[in-house]
Amino acid sequence: MTRVAVAGYGAIGRELVRRLADGVPGITLAAVGARNREAVGADLRTFGVDAAVESIDALEQHADLVVECAPAALLPEIATPFLARGKEVVVLSAGALLDHPHLLELAKEHGGTITVPSGALLGLDAVGACAEGEISSVRMTTRKPVAGLVGAPGLDESGVHVDPDLVEPVRVFSGTAREAARGFPANLNVAAALALAGVGPDRTEVEIWVDPTVTRNTHTIVVESDVADLTMTIENVPSENPRTGRITALSVVSLLRKRGAALRVGS
């Protein structure tokens, strides 16, 4: 059995805990990291879960693997204890990896592993396969409802005022995946994941639109390479947090389920 800790108990963390409580072969939920430990402990009991509830920097003693479901700024605090002991960290705040390359060096030094699941994106296996050949360009266009982008620091930097009564789509960003991940840290981890799978954060082009005509977080990826040309679109149903999709937590469940499976489909 692999002992799993979930660091963070927002929309994604809570859904992941609920799914793990239902049972995943080979996986046991050992600990949850949260600020309000008493309230989270009470919630876990409603799921029938007997897991430790700790601060996010005290999870390593309980688990073999941690799933980071927290604000991006907390990634080093969560990941460092696990990587220093050669354990695995599943990272949802992929954009934070671009600002903390020392985490990869720590993993290499101690035999740890950093895993970035597909999350709210699609086709990362195909992009990775293309990267084994020669990719000439990668472009991603993201469209989100107004609520999905409110509060992003990149909006202030762009000087674009997002009116709640907006009726026409407005482009609020055009640049690289590295810039997108920094300006929209709660929204564009998908851009970082795409960049890590393909040609890197400085060659991956990103556009972000606030679009009142859509109700789902939508990402369209276009890849040109000598292996294949890809055009892919995903429309994610938002979770209770409009910045993230429901599929994100399920992507982690799928990843964990594969660990002990006799049949694994997809690279």
Taken in chain order, the helices and strands follow as EHEHEEHEHHEHEHEHHEEEH
**Arithmetic mean pLDDT:** 92
Output the CATH class name of the largest domain.
Alpha Beta
**Count of helical regions:** 10
Strand content: 25-35%
Largest sheet: 6 strands, parallel
Flag low-confidence runs.
none
Strand order of the largest sheet: 3-2-1-4-5-6
Number of domains: 2
From the N-terminal CA to the C-terminal CA, the straight-line distance is 23 Å
What is the helix content?
25-40%
Task: Please describe what this structure looks like.
The protein has 267 residues and is α/β, with parallel strands linked by helices. Helices cover 34% and strands 25% of the residues. The chain folds into two domains: 2-119 and 247-259, Rossmann fold; 124-236, Dihydrodipicolinate Reductase, domain 2, CATH 3.30.360. It is built from ten helices and eleven strands. The strands form two sheets. It has a six-stranded parallel sheet with strand order 3-2-1-4-5-6, with helices on both faces. The protein has a five-stranded mixed sheet with strand order 8-9-7-10-11. Helix 8 runs antiparallel to helix 9 (189-197). The two termini are 23 Å apart. The model has no long low-confidence stretch (mean pLDDT 92).
What is the compact description of this entry?
Helix content is 34%, strand content 25%. By secondary structure, the protein is an alpha/beta fold. The strands form two sheets. A six-stranded parallel β-sheet has the order 3-2-1-4-5-6, with helices on both faces. Strands 8-9-7-10-11 form a five-stranded mixed β-sheet.
